[in-house]
């Protein structure tokens, strides 16, 4: 069963973003050696993590070459990541498998159009190579799917000075035309909350343990708020 893996925030400069996030009380881990890193992570002991990433707009030119090799879903995703602006950009679903072949077969059997598997890797701060795979629905308005990291990446112990203990909810905007495919892709999930919206994608992230909202201008444009006491209340959208 697919579950929410992580939420992605596009930033203009990952070094500045990490500095601001540390000032806001987060413990941040670089995706690679700091001098070469284009991404960084906020981890929690369980549940979804948060990724802040740089993605040059010029890479949007790869949309059609990538589409030709891996399918239109992956090309559309590249274009989405490369689009100008900063803030919440995407959400990933994950499986426990390190190979997405079976997951892709299952999604296609449900009638969902998805890309071919995109195999990728990065070198972590410890020098080890981290391998993973990605598949993407044709519509970039939907979440994409990532395999389990090989080797696993979640740290053994995580503490954030600002008190944040985990992602409580990810409010995800859906237009009516995307609801059927969303249902084919996402089952019941303890973190993802689909929300009718003219603007598709991540709208807001609730963090357990926070006591006050964080300034988006100092969090890479990401909107973080404290978790609401009950799920019955409307989110502050």
UniProtKB/TrEMBL annotation:
Write down the InterPro entries for this protein, in alphabetical order: Glyas_Bleomycin-R_OHBP_Dase (IPR029068), Glyoxalase-like_dom (IPR025870)
- Superkingdom assignment: Bacteria
Ranges for domain Glyoxalase-like come to: 6-175
| Sections of the chain in a coiled coil | none
Mind telling me what this protein is named? VOC family protein
